[in-house]
What we know:
Bound molecules: iron/sulfur cluster, FE2/S2 (inorganic) cluster
Oligomer: heterodimer
Shape of chain B: elongated
Strand order of the largest sheet of chain B: 2-3-1-4-5
Structural class of chain A: alpha/beta
Largest sheet of chain B: 5 strands, mixed
Amino acid sequence: MPETMTTAAPSAVTLTIDGKTVTAPPGTLLIEAAKQAGIEVPSFCYYPGMALQGACRMCLVSIEKMGKLQTACTTTVAPGMVVHTENDEVRNARKAMLEFLLTNHPLDCPVCDKGGECELQDAVFRYGAAETRFMESKLHHEEKQFSKLIYYDWPRCILCYRCVRVCDEIMDVNAYGVAFRAAHSEIIPNRGEKLECEECGMCVDICPVGALTSGTYRYKTRPWEMNYTGTVCNHCGDGCKTTLSIRNNEIIRANNRDHSGINGEFLCVKGRFGWDFVNSQERLLEPRVRRNGSQAPASWDDALGLAVERLKAVIKEHGRDAVAVIGSNRTSNEENYLLQRLARSVLGTNNIDHHRTADYASLVGALTAAGAKDRHATMAEIASANSILLIGNDPTQQHPLVALQIREAVRQHGAHLYVINRNRIKLAERQAAVFAEVKNETEALASLIGDSPSGELAALREKLQAESDTVVIFGSEIQGRDVQRLVRWALALPGRTRFVALGDYANSRGAADMGLLPNTLPGYSPVSDVAASARFESVWGGSIPSKPGRNIREIIVDIDSGAIKALLVFGSNPAKTFGVSKETLAKLSLLFVADLFPTETAAMADVVVPAASFAEKSGTVTNLCGEVQALRKTMRKAGTRSDFEILLALARLLGAAWPYRTPDDVLREIVERVPGYSIALPHLLVGGAVPTRPEGAPLALERADLVFSSGDSLFTSGSVSRFSWALNAPEEARRPRGHIF
Amino acid sequence: MGFRGQKIEMISDALKSKFDQVIAHYPSKRSAIVPLLVFGQDEIGHVSGELVEEIARRVEVRPIEVEETIGFYSMLHRRPIGKHNFQVCTNVSCMLRGAEEIMAHCERRLGIGHKQTTADGLFSLEEVECLGACCGAPAMQVNYDFYENLTPEKVDALIARLKKGGA
Ligand code: SF4
Ligand code: SF4
Ligand code: SF4
Ligand code: FES
Ligand code: FES
C-alpha cells in the first residue's frame, strides 16, 4: 500500500462486516473491529492483551476475494474488505472445528465446574456438533492435582494455550508448557507432576473450559446457584475489585470476570483464594468479658456497658488523656472517620494512632508544599508510565497488582524501570533497565539526590534525568524528611512526575487520610490548626483538643508507666505487631478489642466484641494510590456487628447524639468536610475507583519507628492469613520470604 | 557409574565442550535445544533432569521450555530405556510385507510390549510410523542402525548377537 505510506497520522480503514460499514484504525484485528460493531466472532485461543496464537480456528470468517476462510484473530483490517462472519461456509467450518475439539472431550458438562459458564459449551449450543462421527474410543487421562489450589483435567483441555500465555506474559512466572504432540498434547507444570508458582489462579480463571479447576471451588456449586457482589479485596493496599460469589451465606469463589475496576481480571492468590478467613471456624461470634481473671461469653449490652462504665471511671479518675485508641488498616473510611471522631470529640483525646505502613502524611505534606497535590499516580497511570522509579519494597510479594502494572508498562510499551533495593527482587532481576543494589535505601536516596551519586546510582540518575513523566514508587524505607527530599528532587525531573507510597493493607491509606493519627485531623491538617478543627467542630459540636496526642509507641510506653489506663483497639493486633507484652497490657483498667479473631491482643482484653469482616459490611476504602472504592455487603455473619455499628453504640452509651444511620451518611460528611475527598459519588456507586487529592500541612513525622511495613509475602496478610486455609495449604507458602517463582 | 550415595556427575567435560561448539553455530542460543538434547541423550542414554537443567541454563530458557521440546519429539526419552531400542515400523508398506508378525515376534522373544523395556535394561521395543525404508520393508531401526527385509529368523539372530554384546 505505498500510496498510504505517508508521515501523517494513519487514517482509519473502512470495511464491511456482515453488511455493516465499519471503520477502524489500521492494524486493528478483524475480531476486534467486529466486536466494536457489535458482532461477536467466537474465539478460544484469542485473548486481548496476550500474544496471538491462531490455534483453535474458531474465529474463521470468510473474506470476499480470499480463497480460504481466514482467522479473524490474526487478520488485520484492510480498506474495502468485505467480511462475512456467519454464512453457511463459516458455520460449517466452526461446527467441524468443534466436532474435532470434542473428539476426546468427555462431555461431562453435568458435573463439570464450568457447566453454565463454559465457552466451549456456548459454542456447541450455537453451532451444533454435539454428536460425533468418530467411532474410535476416546483417549483419557486421569485428572492431576498440580497444586493444592489447581487441578488439571486433560480430557477437557482444548489446548487454547491461554493458561500458558497468561502465566508467562501476564504473570511472568512461566510455570506451564505444552508437551507431546497432536491428540496427545497436554499442559505440563514446571516441576514434574507439580506446579511451583505464585498460585494466583489466573490460569484457572482464564481457562475457557473446565480443564483447570480451583481447589477451593471445585464441585461445590453451579454458577447459577450463586449470588454475586462486587466489592474490594481486603488484603494488600492495592485495592483490587473482586466479585464474591455467595451460596448459602458463604463465600464460594472470588474472581473479576467482568474485568471491571483498576485490576481488570487480575487477582493474586490472596484475592482469589485468601478470602476464606471470612468463613473460618475461628471467627469470634459472641462478645466476651473478663471477670475474675478469665474471659467468658457475654451479651452485647453487657460487653459494651462494661466498656463504657470503665471508660467513664478512667476519665473521671485519671482524665481524658488516660484513654488511647488504636485503629485498623482494614476497616472502612467511614469507620475510621467515626473512630477518630469518637476519640477526639467524645472521649476528648488525640491519643489515636494505627500501624502506619507507609508515610502518607509526609507525602501529602510534601506535595502540598510543592503545590503539586494532583501528583498522586493512579493505578492505571503506573501501567501507562514511560518511566518508573521503584525504591524499596518488593511489589511482586507485597503488592501484586502494582507489580503487574509495572510489568505491563515494561511489556506493553517498553517503559524503563529503575530499581533501588537492598535485595535482588524479581522486578530488579527481570524488568529493570537499571538496578542499583544498595545496602540501605535511605542512604541510597541521599546519594542519588546528592552532589555526587555513587556507582550504579550515578548511571541511574543520568538515565532518569533523560526520561519524562516518571512515576516514583516507594516503600516504608523512605519516610519523614526523606519523603520531602525525594518529592522535591523528583518533581524537578522532566515532565509530570507522580508518586505512590506503598502501604501494606486494604485501607492503610484510608486510615491515614481519615486522621487515625495523633497529630492530624482527617485530611492532614494539624490538630493545632484552629480553622481546620472548626470545620469539624461546626458539625460535631464541642471542641477538638488542640494538643497532639501520643503516637503508638508513646501509648505503649505510657500503658507501662501507668499514664494510659484505657485502650480501645479496633481491628489491630498491637501485641504482635508492636510486641506489647502481656504484663504491659495487664496494667490497663480497660482493654477493649473489636476484631474478627481471637488474636494475641484479644486474648488479653477485658472486653472483646466480634466484628464483621469486609464481606459483611458496606462502606469505602482507599487504596495506596488514593483511589476510593466501595465495599458492598455480600453476606451476614450471625453474632457479629460492623465497626460502624459498634462505634455508634459506644457513642450513644457515652452520651453523644450522632446523626448517622448508615455508612452513607458518614460518607456524605467525609465528602463535604475532608479536604481532597470531595469525590463524585455516582462513579463510586457503579463500582468505579475515584481518585482523591488530599492536601494539608501535617506536622513532621515524629520518629523513625512509627512507619514500617509488615513485609508480608504473597501468602501472608498480617494477623489474618493464619486463619486462611488457602494461604497456608500451598507448598509455596513455606518458601522463604522473597523467593522468586 | 558412581558408588552408593555418591553424586554422579553425568555430564562429561567432553559433552560440555561439545555443547559450547554447537551453541556457537546458531544465531540464537535457543535454536540449539534439539541438537543438545540429541548429543546429551547419546551420551547419557536418556534425557535426565540434570541434562534438562543444564541445557536450559546454557541456552537461557526456563526448563519447562526444554521439557516442551522433549515432549514433541518421540525420539527423545525422558526416562531410561534399553541399551538397544527396537523401533518396528508398522506403517503401510511394512504392514503389507508382514510387519505385524515381526512386531508380534519381537514381543514374544523379548517378553515386552510397545514402549516397554526388559528387566535387564538391554532392550526396549516400540511400534513406529514409516521409517522411510519402504523399499526394504518390513524394516526396523535399532538405535541408529536400520535392518531391512526382516524375517523372524533374522530378528532372532540379531537379538542373539546383541545379547552377546555385539553391536
Ligand atoms: S496460578 Fe501459578 S501457574 Fe497459574 S497463572 Fe498463576 S503463577 Fe501461573
Ligand atoms: S488448560 Fe484450559 S486454558 Fe490451558 S490450554 Fe487447556 S483449555 Fe486452554
Ligand atoms: S493484589 Fe492486593 S488487593 Fe489485589 S487481590 Fe492481591 S492482595 Fe488483594
Ligand atoms: S481465536 Fe482465532 S484461531 Fe483461536
Ligand atoms: S512403511 Fe515401513 S519404512 Fe515405510
